[in-house]
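Final report, results section. Input specification for complex C-07:
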Amino acid sequence: MKGYRNRVLRVDLTARSFSEESLDPTLIHDFVGGGGFGAKLLYDELPPGVDPLGEDSALVFVAGPLAGTSAQSFGRWKVFFKSPLTGGFFKSSGGGFFASELKFAGFDAIIVKGKADRPVYLWVHDGSYEFRDASYLWGLDCDDTHTLIREDLHDPKVRLACIGPAGELGVKYAGIFSDRRTAGRGGGGTVMGSKNLKAIALRGKEKIPLAEPERFREAVREQVRRYRNDPNFERFSLRGTQNAEFTNVLGIFPTRNFREGVLPGYENIDSSAFDKIRVRNTACHNCMLHCGSLTKINKGNYRGSWSEGPEYETIWAFTGPLLCSDIGLTVVADKMCDDLGLDTISTGDAIGFAYELYEKGILTKEDTGGLELTYGNDAPVLTLIKQIAYRQGIGELLAEGTREASQRIGKGSDQYAMHVKGLDIPAYDPRGAKAHGLSMMTASLGADHGYGYAGQEIFGVPYKGKSIDRFAIEGKGELTKWNQDNRAIWNLGIMCAFASRYFDHELFGRLLCSATGHREFLDPEFLLLVGERVINLERMFNCREGFDRKDDVYPSRFLEDPLPEGPSKGQVFEADVLLEDYYRVRGWDPETGIPTKEKLAELGLEYTLEPGK
Amino acid sequence: MKGYRNRVLRVDLTARSFSEESLDPTLIHDFVGGGGFGAKLLYDELPPGVDPLGEDSALVFVAGPLAGTSAQSFGRWKVFFKSPLTGGFFKSSGGGFFASELKFAGFDAIIVKGKADRPVYLWVHDGSYEFRDASYLWGLDCDDTHTLIREDLHDPKVRLACIGPAGELGVKYAGIFSDRRTAGRGGGGTVMGSKNLKAIALRGKEKIPLAEPERFREAVREQVRRYRNDPNFERFSLRGTQNAEFTNVLGIFPTRNFREGVLPGYENIDSSAFDKIRVRNTACHNCMLHCGSLTKINKGNYRGSWSEGPEYETIWAFTGPLLCSDIGLTVVADKMCDDLGLDTISTGDAIGFAYELYEKGILTKEDTGGLELTYGNDAPVLTLIKQIAYRQGIGELLAEGTREASQRIGKGSDQYAMHVKGLDIPAYDPRGAKAHGLSMMTASLGADHGYGYAGQEIFGVPYKGKSIDRFAIEGKGELTKWNQDNRAIWNLGIMCAFASRYFDHELFGRLLCSATGHREFLDPEFLLLVGERVINLERMFNCREGFDRKDDVYPSRFLEDPLPEGPSKGQVFEADVLLEDYYRVRGWDPETGIPTKEKLAELGLEYTLEPGK
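Structure output:
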């Protein structure tokens, strides 16, 4: 078995036991690896209706078949779980060195079930594994947890995925952190905390054997050529996603809790503003892009703060929702969320939600403990972040996510809870980018921007040789399906989204095939089928939980209130017509939004219709 | 040249230049190494009257001849400088791995002079060296500085000595930090900050060649045998200095700013209290003692806090002076001082001083910005620590140290400034341990407890086969001279103070001789002469700066007010008679306290009497 390690580690925290499994050849054929493996393993692992934070829920950590090889930009890992925020299928992705180290340590995946009776961490090294006491780590932030576990293991090169106080305390959107790279969304850290699992620590020295080393090297050389030949490579490599203006100029930079699409003062947080505070670039394992940035604030209210990041979404999360534009706040809030273990997007959304409720008088100064949540006032933000992480004051409520918080508050506050399926909406106003919006509305995860990113609308990437009108409705069902299926394909290798611009299915297939020896991976039609299979399996996971068309829905604001200003002025999101087009293209029932039997048969997913499956 | 690296690195930050020097054979003969080298190099390096924070001042970092070898407990380093707190000679000592790494990187010492025009750090590796930008590190705490420099150098095993915000901002008692081991006292971090030097980073792979490897191994085996045969080894190894009761039971645990000697509630911070919060032990390079402790607070006001330490002095610093006994406060204050870059002893003294002034009405609530500095109230302590580190509020004043602060405040506050020569007094009341007190009163550093630690009085260690009455006056001059000279001998190897119980001059000489090949080191008489030489050279450094008998003085409290309660009740410190006895034994002029010409000639230090020397 090449490329893969052919070992899945199964951990039972209740029984404090381990077991190992080989990879099922059917699993490889049907799901290739990475995001495919994770979706199938989670689907099989979880009984329908399971409590996401109960003992029977699972976390599935997966590295892709190209992780740890010399192929560039495959250093990401994914974690699969039932989300405590959405109650549905979830996958969240982190960078750094954890994926490669998992492969070096001898495994393709780790499945964690059960609940430890007291805090533990998992130590996996060179094919061995053990539980270690984490009582003393409970309550510690992610940075300190990295430091102390490395000291405990007497090896500063150990790689970790861990949670902070937010995950321990059950904040519903707690993330999982690895060297300041985050699998932030959906509450994976919350699930980990519910299991009393503080961290997974990895170290290994096993190299990844390749099926056809010479062909593999040639494919990597081709990949590197493509990177180098891109005239935008240097720029992207320097700035990464630190360019908040790219949506602002389209008028879809959500502002004032998604009321508007243009941020006044955005020039304070645009790419040239970040050029001034960037210290150096950082990278994941074997990635020439090194798109990460270390930033440092040397003046203003947040002087002395630093972070790795913030990335685009975080820059937005602490500006747009609050009508603020202090670059220092984005840096310090990013670091604080990384340390405390919070998803920055949901944190920003929760705070923006509170600001709007405060404006509307639904939350008062009494509710906020004296904090003045008026748009443009950044003074309460750091306090709110801490309160959320430790579930103190108004943070107790906001820690539940905007959907649940609005249900508890009542008073019509649900119209200001900006989420899809419970997942708070990221930094794109769907009204000005219909396919992008359609993907966020239909994604199994809820409002996730990466599930089927519409680069055609945001960056003008051609689709089938043509440029796409971002306001147009026609054809957006097809485009969205393509974007989602295609992203699912890259996810089979857990390829970084930023590398996809250098890839076609042919080169990707060459890497996969020469690494693993599976010749079918060379066939683009095969890959497309697997991509669609993954999307449909994820959908069926949710249908099993009772999800259907009613859950593919946006807050009324997008449907009823046209964007008031800027380059997307006047646009609303035409939800029904877009959704029906999408269902049609998908082969999903137009009434229920559930994949038809025919579609499932075509994809070899009939078993998802069987009872108990 | 064996044992030594025979290389001293000289750094000029103003000129941004480096040079190297070999060790002078006279230096080796007269001063052996470590603390001897440092004293002589500093004496030679600094012109009289130099501003400690001026461009012409120097920092001398030194590793001993046994650092980096397999000998146990020689992993400490020392830094020498003119103290901004005392205006006199200073040496401060830190543990961890910095000393060994300096040897591995190819050097015995680094002399830093000048001032960089913007923040830099020094990167010394495998015999090479360079300056690196530290602008982005300015303002960062010590922990983050370690992390980011290791990332910058792509080597998690780099060892550092660095400063925190306190050192940058000129707090007069800022320390130098290496992996949470601290050269805390006297303001070495302040000097470093004044030079715009954020850190020294080290990495090296050179082994230390030994003159007589087999004899050396035999001496190490003997050392290890002695450790193992000590019935108290396990206990000491487990608890280190986390046993505050050892002075409390003698009634010399300074309480309420040195007014009393017994702390009510000391059982909250005694050794069994620390047994409950200890996570694991930590060690310096090649040290079986592993006396360090990682601690974690799991309940109470300071829940979730952790630290490496606190050690005895820090446990005291945040309890006794303030009449508090919360173990959680000692842990969180320890970590905060480590991160912000503060000496814990002077910080605790400064806060205790402020508490007493508040009680006396010399400082009011207006002065403290609303903080209530009443004995027993620990609520303001963390705020005060931050204010000191950042020189904000009342911290601006307290950052100067108690002597200078009292001079600025006036109103008779100087009687509450508990210092000798400007160095704030550590956790021993001199009234109940006369030789220990005499050493702190006469030490060139000011009130330093390690300069001539009177284990005979504190632990009942026999002296010349006899037990010592700690209240007695007779013979304390001789005992103090012995303790100081003897400590200066161990410092030649920069041996950890805690290891000295396992050593005699014979074994120490065998290690030194077999490592370096210098046979004179085998002679105890030779070593005693060098020890005395070092003490006298340090004294002459101070005399050159205008120090004399008037500076060997305690606050009047110790001389006039008997200890009111406890096992040392009724004791005062008989300063004059003790001092005269000490001068007599030292061969120092009884009127001036300056070493006589005869004494200096006996020690080969006549040159200290020459003009300009």
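The mean pLDDT of chain A is 97. Chain A has 24 helices and 17 strands. This concludes the modelling results for the funded period.
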